Amino acid sequence: MIQNYLRTAIRNLWKNKGFSTINIVGLALGMACSMPTMATDRAEYILPWTSYLEDNGWAKDWGATDPRTCILLRPGSDAALVEKKITGIPNRFDTEDKNIRMELGLQRFSDYYLHSEFSNGMPTTGRIEYVRLFSLVALFILVIACINFMNLTTARSTKRARELGVRKVMGAVRGALIRQFIGEAILMAFLSALLASMMVNLALPAFDQLTGKSISMPYDQGAFWLSIGGITVLTGLLSGSYPAFYLSGFNPISVLKAAHPAPTALGSLFRGGLVVFQFVLSIVMILCTILIARQIHYMQNVKLGYDRENLVYIPIEGNLRNRPDVFRTESELLPGVKRASLLSDNPTVMNNGTLSIGWTGKDPREQVRFIHEAIGPDFLNTMNIPLVAGRDFSPTYPTDSLGCILNETAVTLMGYKDPIGKPVYTGSITLHIVGVVKDFHFQSLHEKIKPLLLAMGTKRNPSLSTILVRTQPGKTALALAGLERLSKQLNPAFPFTYKFSDAEYALLYASEVVTGRLPVIFAVLAIFISCLGLLGFSLFNAEQRMREIGIRKVLGAGVPSLFGLLSKNFLQPIGLAFLIAVPFGWWAMHQWLEQFAYRTNISWWVFGLSGMIAISIALGTVCFQTIKAATANPINSLKTK
């Protein structure tokens, strides 16, 4: 109803700041027919709004909050001014419930895909959270790579020490050397960017398959190249700044007298700090990967309050709209079928909302969104949903046509102590409560269980859209063969289609499953890059302590003691990184888990496991170089200049 009034009222604004097109989004988006393959909303066919209203009487209810309304503004129109004019339109008309007040708002259509979650009528989050998450991960990996470049460049400083000394003696100033090293870093970054673009093109098909998206690189857009160029220059400056100032600061006399300059305390502290920061990011990513995997496992195995195994959904279409009860009763006689019922929606996404539910003692100012669904006989038994009080709908009770079944959340909200037989008002109709069911999940675990009202669907009720069939364990194939024959007999003009409950439930968390795969890849990449930096740090440390190792071996130190001595230099910064990463990682994952109304707990062993993984990888990285330094011939070490 609100869409009809809205259409009429908006047309009155046509001569001022009007609209060139008004499109009510009903069963399908009309614009979707000519949309490219990358479009989010697509339609198989277009249905006139008037025809949609004929089969969906609930859309005439002022309390109905669906479907979405799309408005095309004239070029140059002020969206804020238009929004101000239409805000109070619903409240200008008489409604069944005088206490219900609505306000309309506008959201740019291009923003809806990323900002599809609302709170108090305002867009808050949505897919934008994943964009921010993966952008942050990309930044982490880039910073880790920059830190590696610093560590590896300073580790190679001994190779260029004499070159720098000679150039300084020949008159090279420090500023020229700094520009040279930063220029080398920027050139390296540009070569890396070129190689990265080639690798991205090769990896895009696999990435598209992994994420289920179709992504193309915008090489024809100038802004893309400007952003890539800016990131590349910034990366070169960040990664090359410390090595440039460090290497250009060598004293030429000490450099020419020794194979490499003596490390300063400040330089050693800075390089150790880089390793710590690097592994803080790596440990956080390991921790996040483990917790995301735990949450996905929790969602896939949580008890929903009904049995989704051996449950099949069959759409009510064609001739079945006129006799869904016939199909239901006939299907229960088929081999392999345990029982069957009817429903007005998909059991995993029941979302027919209304604000028009009332009860005795309700605060007139209170507006609560109920989920209002129609069901057929034997629904609770078919779904295996337990009753808390009362009974299921039954053909033996003619008054069930004005009865309803509530969930525990709805009864708690109403405050009924003994709810059976109590009245519930929906618009001008008064229903009586015949049963109360235990709370079950009929939406994503992102959402808290909402108040649910189940009403009795009539034989010709157009809102009944789904036939639920519970098959006997191990006999699903037999049951489907019989259901297909029955469908061809009763509904020959339509092909037999069906969906499995567990498969439909899995679709609710397709994005989370992808989110769980990508962090694994990112974590492996981050750890690999961190290990390269740690390897450079170990090379640098071994070269700096070559003579010390030789002297210790001459004095009788064994390989195990030398290995422990050298390994301690790496375990200490990693241990410090673990202590820093734990609170930061806990906070990051706590924020991510907050989007789920039902979530796994953050156990202590997750932190221990992430720390053990980081330490094991670090030891495995430096083990070969450390053993090589500890087993080297002390004579060669002492002869080294």
Could you list some keywords that capture this structure?
disordered N terminus; single chain; 16 strands; 52% helix; 4-stranded antiparallel β-sheet; 8-stranded mixed β-sheet; 641 residues; alpha+beta; elongated
Outline the structure in words:
The protein is an alpha+beta fold and 641 residues long. It has three domains: 2-123, no CATH class; 130-300 and 509-639, no CATH class; 318-493, no CATH class. Helix content is 52%, strand content 11%. Strands 7, 8, 9, 10, 11, 12, 13 and 14 form an eight-stranded mixed beta sheet that branches. α5 (128-155) packs antiparallel against α10 (265-301), α10 packs across α18 and α18 packs antiparallel against α19. The longest helix is centred in the N-terminal third of the chain and has 38 residues, at 174-211. The protein is elongated, with a radius of gyration of 34 Å. It starts with a helix and ends with a helix. Residues 1-35 have low confidence and may be disordered.
The number of distinct β-strands equals 16
Number of domains: 3
| Rg estimate, integer Å | 34 Å
Structural class assignment: alpha+beta
How far apart lie the N and C ends? 90 Å
Low-confidence stretches: 1-35
Averaged pLDDT: 78
| Count of discrete alpha- or pi-helical segments spanning 4 or more residues | 20
Report the portion of residues in β strands. Answer: 5-15%
